[in-house]
Write a structure and sequence with these properties.
The protein has 283 residues and is α/β, with parallel strands linked by helices. Helix content is 41%, strand content 13%. The strands form 2 sheets. Strands 1, 2, 3, 4, 5, 6 and 7 form a 7-stranded mixed beta sheet that branches. The structure holds guanosine-5',3'-tetraphosphate (G4P).
């Protein structure tokens, strides 16, 4: 019942994308490098069929380098162009022009054979909420880029950002909602903060984070919170509360506060670079 908003938003966003996709040569799909599969929406493959495709592993600064590389290989093998980026700091964004042209080289060649020269590549950025679409567009386009204004056939109000003479970008990203049916997917989206915290108990979520870290990053909690790890997740949370002096009425442990600290540290990379899913589980 929490997700009642989901179908309405999804239909509208999908319609917007269907309207615009016919104007597009290249779909630039942002995924979260920490969960490259769970942060994808499968509808994009249907919407973007027959288009050149570029996957950006965004927030690569928050994921482990070796897994970023492994995921890049994984998607390349599936026929996508791939790039690791950090939109927040601008990492990788500069070299994207070359990657865009490379991703579209078949189309450019087709155009050339038909005598069409210098027609800019048109791209649309898509992705689930919070994956970094706006940050990426801003990093790529900067303030200096003038909008090219409406063009015939473009959905009313849509603007194109001219990046240079070769590439134009639709200024409104396509928002796709993640698929929630799978509990594991939902949980991973919650880990990275893509499902609003109101629908999930922070404490419950923090216990899942602890469970993941105990299994995949043993010793990390101990080191970061100067505490002894325990296989019982509640005990771990209590120890985090003790270590961070999260108290109510001066003496009782405030587990809710400790949970917030942990989830926040995790999401913001203060626990280090952590990848939550791995390519070998998706073959
Ligand atoms: P959206 O349009 O896809 O919904 O996402 P948006 O650009 O609003 O980005 C969502 C959050 O992710 C923002 O943080 C943004 O700064 C952050 N972000 C985007 N790209 C990257 C990246 O490559 N690395 C890291 N570490 N963070 C990234 P916020 O907390 O909402 O805002 P702020 O605190 O950064 O201002």
């Amino acid at each position: 019942m929490h997700f009642q908003w989901y179908p309405g938003h999804m239909t509208k966003a999908k319609r917007m994308m269907q309207e615009n996709i016919k104007l597009i040569d290249l779909v630039i799909e942002l995924v979260d490098a920490r969960i490259p599969m769970s942060s994808r929406n499968p509808d994009i493959d249907e919407l973007g069929k027959n288009k050149a495709r570029l996957i950006l592993l965004n927030k690569s600064d928050l994921a482990e380098d070796k897994w970023n590389d492994a995921w890049a290989e994984y998607f390349k093998e599936k026929g996508f162009s791939v790039m690791k980026v950090n939109s927040k700091k601008g990492g990788g964004v500069k070299s994207i022009q070359g990657v865009i042209l490379e991703a579209c080289k078949e189309k450019i060649e087709r155009d050339r054979k038909r005598g069409i020269l210098n027609r800019p590549i048109r791209a649309m950025v898509v992705g689930i909420p919070n994956v970094g679409k706006s940050t990426f567009i801003n990093a790529l386009a900067g303030k200096a880029c003038a909008k090219t204004g409406n063009k015939p056939g473009v959905t009313k109000g849509k603007q194109w950002i001219r990046l240079n003479k070769n590439v134009e970008l639709l200024d409104t990203p396509g928002i796709l909602w993640p698929k929630f049916e799978d509990q594991t997917v939902g949980l991973r989206l919650a880990f990275i903060g893509s499902i609003k915290d109101e629908v999930l108990q922070t404490e419950e979520l923090s216990l899942e984070v602890i469970k993941f870290l105990l299994a995949n990053q043993p010793g990390l909690l101990a080191k970061h919170y100067a505490m002894e790890e325990d296989q019982d997740t509640v005990v771990c949370l209590q120890r985090i509360a003790e270590s961070r002096h999260c108290l109510v009425r001066g003496s009782e442990l405030d587990l809710e506060k400790a949970a917030k600290i942990l989830v926040d540290d995790f999401r913001n990379g203060r626990l280090g670079k952590i990848t939550l899913e791995f390519p070998q589980d998706y073959n």
